[in-house]
Design brief:
The chain has about 230 residues and is of the alpha+beta class. It is built from 6 helices and 8 strands, in the order ααααααββββββββ.
C-alpha cells in the first residue's frame, strides 16, 4: 500500500505534471513539495502552512482537497499511534568488572577512614581549645583578691628606673609603669622580667616571697614570705 506522499506523486505523474510546474504556479518552494511526496513532514513549516501546501498541491493536480487533507490527518494520526505502541528498548544491565567493584569498595573504606581521621582531629583540637580556656580561667582564679602592692618611685626622674625581677615560685604579678599597664599574668620559677620607667612602678603581687628584684642594680627588700 502506497503512503500518503507516494499517492500524491503517483497522481501527479499520471497527469504528467512536474514538481517545478507546481512550484512555479503556486509559488511554493519545491523543497516543501518534494518533502510532501517523500513523507518528510518534519521538514514542512507549521500546521497551517502544511494544510495550505496540501490544498494548493491537490488543487493544481486536480484532486479533491478535503479528501486529501483527511488522508493526511489519518496518516499523521497513524504515525503517532505507532510511536506510542513502539516498545521501549530496555538497556541491558551493565556488568561491572570484579576488579572495579573491588576498587570501589576499597575507595569507600579509604573515604570512611579519612573521614574518621578528620573527625578525630576536630575532636582533639576542640579538646585542646577547652584545655586552653580552662587554663586561662585558672590563671584568672590565681589572681588573688588580697594582693601585695609595691610602689617604687624615682628619686631623680632624669636618671630613669630599670626594674629587674627573678621569679623563684609561681607568682601572679601586675606591673604599671608611669601609670600604664606593662604586664599582668603568671610567672613561673626561673622566669625573669625587665621594665623601665621615668617616675614610678606600681606592682601588685600575689606571692610576696616568690621573687627577688632590683632597681638600677640595687637589690630590693623582700615583700614577705613565699606563698
Amino acid at each position: 500500500m502506497n503512503s500518503f506522499g507516494q499517492e500524491l506523486k503517483k497522481e501527479r505523474e499520471l497527469r504528467g505534471i512536474s514538481l517545478k510546474e507546481i512550484a512555479d504556479t503556486t509559488k511554493i518552494n519545491i523543497r516543501y513539495l518534494r518533502a510532501l511526496e517523500e513523507d518528510n513532514f518534519d521538514m514542512l513549516p507549521g500546521n497551517f502552512f502544511i494544510k495550505s501546501i496540501i490544498k494548493a498541491y491537490a488543487g493544481y493536480v486536480g484532486l479533491d482537497e478535503e479528501v486529501i487533507l483527511d488522508h493526511f490527518h489519518h496518516t499523521i494520526q497513524t504515525k503517532k499511534e505507532e510511536i506510542k505502541e513502539q516498545p521501549r528498548e530496555e538497556m541491558p544491565p551493565i556488568e561491572v568488572p570484579r576488579k572495579f567493584k573491588l576498587f570501589l569498595r576499597t575507595a569507600g573504606y579509604f573515604i570512611i577512614f579519612i573521614t574518621a581521621l578528620v573527625i578525630i582531629f576536630i575532636l582533639v583540637k576542640s579538646k585542646k581549645s577547652v584545655s586552653i580556656n580552662e587554663y586561662t580561667a585558672t590563671t584568672a582564679l590565681l589572681s588573688p583578691e588580697d594582693t601585695h602592692s609595691l610602689i617604687l618611685e624615682s628619686i631623680n626622674p632624669s636618671d630613669g628606673m630599670l626594674l629587674e625581677m627573678t621569679f623563684h615560685q609561681e607568682t601572679w604579678i601586675e606591673i604599671f609603669t608611669d601609670g600604664n599597664l606593662y604586664f599582668t599574668g603568671l610567672k613561673q620559677p626561673g622566669d625573669q622580667l625587665f621594665s623601665t620607667a621615668e617616675n614610678e612602678f606600681l606592682i601588685h603581687i600575689g606571692n610576696a616571697g616568690g621573687f627577688t628584684y632590683s632597681i638600677n642594680g640595687i637589690p630590693g627588700e623582700p615583700l614577705g614570705k613565699p606563698g
